[in-house]
# Entry
Amino acid sequence: MRITTNQAEKAMTGGHVFSQLGLSMLLQRLKRMYSDKPTPETLQKCTEEINIFLEKYKKIMTADYAILSSL
Amino acid sequence: MMKSFDEVSALIKENRLLHIAGNTDLLKKLPQGNWVGGSTEYFMTEDGGLVSDTLLFVNEFTNGKFSIRDYGADNISQVTKDAYDSGYSIVIMPFDSDVCMEYARNASKFEGMFFKNIVGWVSGVNVKVLGNPEYPSIVVNGATGEVHTNKAVTMHLEVPESQTVSVNIINIFSPDENSPTIEFIQEGVVINTCLVDGKEMSFADFIRQQNIDTRLPLIGRCFGYGINVDIHSVEDNEVRLGAPVFTGIKYQRAKAIPNYEAALNAPLTKLKNAKTVFSCNCLSNFMHGGLEGKKLEALFGPVVFGEIAYQMLSQTLVYVTLE
# Structure
């Protein structure tokens, strides 16, 4: 359960709707971080955080991963 | 579940692992043991909304490993590090305390936040004595017997990896389609300036000029969730909020709720059989919705002065399920 930097960027900057509160709040924090410093390094860091989150909560991430992986 | 002082004392003496909410004087008299507690006299019970200074609300946990820790404003950021990788943590902090302000301002930036399941609430007192220094909001570390007015107490609970903890919220409010878009260039709970449809102005002036009903929250859009921010007070040029606002989020005024009981029960009906291990509801919902004596379908717990689902929230119902 992993996404690419391209998918992470679309997830953070689009107005998508996710079902897991923790993912939504994490994306909000990462969106602010990326907005403050929109560099490839920041995007890479944000992508890694999302992927760690997806791995940790994979049992309840099926629906949200379906959205993320389709971006 | 609501219990008498004697019943709760007996559970503590049996070494049960407990989360307790209730009247300040009762909490102070409970014996030491494996528990954490915070003050409130408002509850949602199976029999309906209740105001009581004689009964205590108790959650009992059957977990194996646990720890009880205190945190001040200087080290509350450690709460995510101390939380179990597989588990959840219940944080209780006194209303208007330094630790509460620090958490409200910065919790979303704590290392590991959202990777650990942090929930909790802000303790208070009966609103008749709120703000009276003789009746402070407290939290209690039952393990040490220490009573705090300026520290948070936390119970960290481990659950088997075969179980999944899920932190959830219920927000009965929706944005008013006639509301302008409100954005902030400052973050936190004390705000001077905002952008209304892109135009910078005093937030206090905006609230006064628009005659905004401060019983209703602002709602920030957060990837499918509405995150409420309630307005505590409007001073000359300063607005104090019950939860932080953030840059990069678009907020709108909320629509009025004609019937809080019905609005809450609509989503709660689906949760009757959920394995809920913790929940709390907001005092604003209780008071503005006239919930005393009204029955909700599920999610019984303390009615509190601020809710925590990772970060500080307001006018929201927070709950944790094990799946």
